Structure formats: C-alpha cells, structure tokens
C-alpha cells in the first residue's frame, strides 16, 4: 500500500512508505471515491445487499475501532504481536485503511461524509499480525521469531471466530508452511480468503527475463483469491505484480482510505485492491451465506469486465471485478451448490422400490469358437503380410543413401 496525502494528489508515491498526512474534508473524500464506486457498479449492488450479517477478518496491523467511518462495526481480536509490542502502542494505520475500504459506513448526516466501504453493513474482526514502519516496536517485529507465525495464528483465530471472509493485504516472497496450513484450515471451514498479489511490478531488479514479478505469499497458495491492482483505464497498475498467481483485479490506484485520528489518505497498492475484492466477497456471502469459497471465486471471475482478449493473462487475471455482476453470477451459481434446487431425498433418488435381480443374458455356445477363429485368422494374416514384405524388400533393395519414406 502506497499512501499520499489527500490534498496532495500530484505528489509522487513512495513504495512501502507513508507520507505525512494532509487534512482533507470528509465530504471531499467521498467525492474522490465516486469514480471508483461507479467502476465497481456499487449503486446497483447496494440495492441488493450492503453486506449485513457478514464478518470480514482483517488480519493486518490492527484497526482503530474509534475511527468515525468504522465506529460500531469493529470487533478487536487478539494482538498476535502482544509480546513484541509490549510497552508501545501500535499506530494501526494500514489495517484501518483496509477496513475502511471493506466496511466503512461514513459519518455525518446520512453517513454522507468520509469513506463508504464496499460492504458498509459488514462487521470487521480486527487481528493484529504484522507491524509497520511507524510502530515503535517495528525493529523488534523485524527480528523476532514470534512474528514469524503471527499471520498463521491470526488466520486460524479468524476462522474459528466467525469470519466469513479473511482479507490478507500482506505478503512476502517466501512460503511459510504454517500460513499455508492455516489457509487450508480456513478454506476447509468455508471461509473465503483474499490476498494482495504484491507491489514489485515496477522494480526492475526483482523481475525475471520475461518481466514476471516474484510470487507473493499467501496470495500464491492454492485456494486464495489473489488480486492485482488496476489504474484508471482498467490496465494493470505498473507497481502490481505480474505473474500467474493473479486471479482477478480491482482498482488499486488513487483510492481514498481512512486513518486513525480523523485523517484520510489517497492510497495505491494491491493491498487496496485486495480489500475491495474482500468487500465484494462479503456482499456475495450476505446474499448466499453458505456459498463455498470456490463458488465465490467463480462468481468473481464471471463478474469481470475489461478482461484480456484471451480470457486470462498474468497482468489482470480474468479482469476487473464488478460488484453487481458478481451478485448476479452468484445467484446463478447458487443452484449448483450441494443440496440446492429440488433434489429428491437420498432414499428416493434411484426410485422408491427396492432394486430387482440383475438380469443375466446367456451367451450361445458357438460364440467362444467364433472368437478363437477370428483371432487365429487375424494372426495368420499378419504373419503372411510380414513374409510378403520381407520378400519384396529382398527383390527391391533401397539404393544406398536414399531418404526415408515421406508422406505424399
């Protein structure tokens, strides 16, 4: 996630860093969101659902529950870095920004100011599992062995405490077996897992000869919905990782996000895109609470617009998600779920009567001798053909140096 002050949109973004916040009026922030909300088809989607009854776990740097656009919607889970943070207070910048994109409800008259999230009626389960440079404990976070398993513990906690969707706007270049197992555990419990594809796409020293960025984990684990970032115009944002882990993409350049202390930033990053897709997944789960994670992923794929001509490419995956279309796709996929439709009870699927005896069809006695005769004749014909070929070759040898036979 790359941040810029909301009143300094022309300032260059610094990869992986935060700029000093610049105050912006909350209603100006909503205005900045409008074009992105239009791209996602949010007005149509919100006529169907706003995510009520769904919990999205934000396993991140922590979320400020008193931020005006999130107040009343955040349940603060355990701090997986409690020993590392001892005696310090985390800033919770990144996690608050991601939570606002997912479930911000705005504030002020009619909630018309501040950030409106993709699923504004969803609840956030905040689990702190990563540090950020602004934290006083960041140096310890970078060197502590306890931090290595924090994300995995956070995923398992979320899966065991009611999360319908887990957002992982984080990643690293190396696989972590505990994280892989935790993600498998969560998906096995029916939780949709969404993660950022990574922000190394414009770092030439990290790309291979074909321009592919390193695979980022947990985005690259099986079953995870890996999200790339697009910029206005729907093309891949230059910083977004290009590789075959990418499943779908979403706007990730110039997104307003909320921050503790009533401040707002404009942010770039696949972190933001991941949060957007987690919000859309929350809308799907609100409409279809028991939909399997694989079908939620399929609904997202079927919703995409501005996709590559071949149907898929490693830049944007299957294309840019669209919330209203995703809900429509989920409706059609719901009929394919186990138990959906008007299926008969298990005891009646093959008829109500007990199965009768299997009919035995007798084989005439002359069948076996006929089969033997056919086989013998076939073998004899093959032997004769080989003998003729050998005789012909002896009478008509191929001249030395002649090329092998070729089709006419």
TrEMBL record:
Keyword field: Hydrolase, Membrane, Protease, Serine protease, Signal, Transmembrane, Transmembrane helix
Active site, renumbered: 60 (charge relay system), 94 (charge relay system), 271 (charge relay system)
Region ranges (Disordered): 330-355
Occurrences of domain Peptidase S8/S53 (ranges): 51-319
InterPro entries tied to this protein: Peptidase_S8/S53_dom, Peptidase_S8/S53_dom_sf, Peptidase_S8_Asp-AS, Peptidase_S8_subtilisin-like, Peptidase_S8_subtilisin-rel
UniProt key word Signal: yes
Signal peptide stretch: 1-26
GO biological process: proteolysis
Record keyword DNA repair present: no
GO molecular function: serine-type endopeptidase activity
Gene3D superfamilies, sorted: Peptidase S8/S53 domain
Membrane-traversing stretches: 370-392
Domain of life: Bacteria
PROSITE patterns, per database record: SUBTILASE, SUBTILASE_ASP
Pfam families xref list: Peptidase_S8 (PF00082)
Protein family per UniProt: Belongs to the peptidase S8 family.
Name the record gives this protein: Peptidase S8/S53 domain-containing protein
Organism lineage: Bacteria, Bacillati, Actinomycetota, Actinomycetes, Streptosporangiales
